[in-house]
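== Folding task for one protein ==

=== Format: two labelled lines per protein ===

==== Paired sequence and structure tokens ====
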Amino acid sequence: MNIANVMKQAQAMQEKMKRIEDEIQASEVEASVGGGMVSLTMNGGHEVTKVAISPEVSGDREMLQDLVLAAVNEAVRKVKELREEKMKGAMSGLGLPNMPGLGNLF
């Protein structure tokens, strides 16, 4: 076991994880609920970057609140899935066992 090789591999993995994290942060997911009455776009950093509300929703405040909440939660779920998928791909080459939820660590 050569410690220099281990350190080199660790550094390469750290750089790869940084690139993946940057890619995730730059990614966007879209969520649409209520048959398209509320749609939003969220980036990988969980920032909502766009919201679209159909005119059909006007006047029903409670329904609008519920739809916005559902759209945000759906977008958060999609970002989580994106993160887990990217991290799973990065970890697959390491020969480690599959560890569900590992994407949450990064």
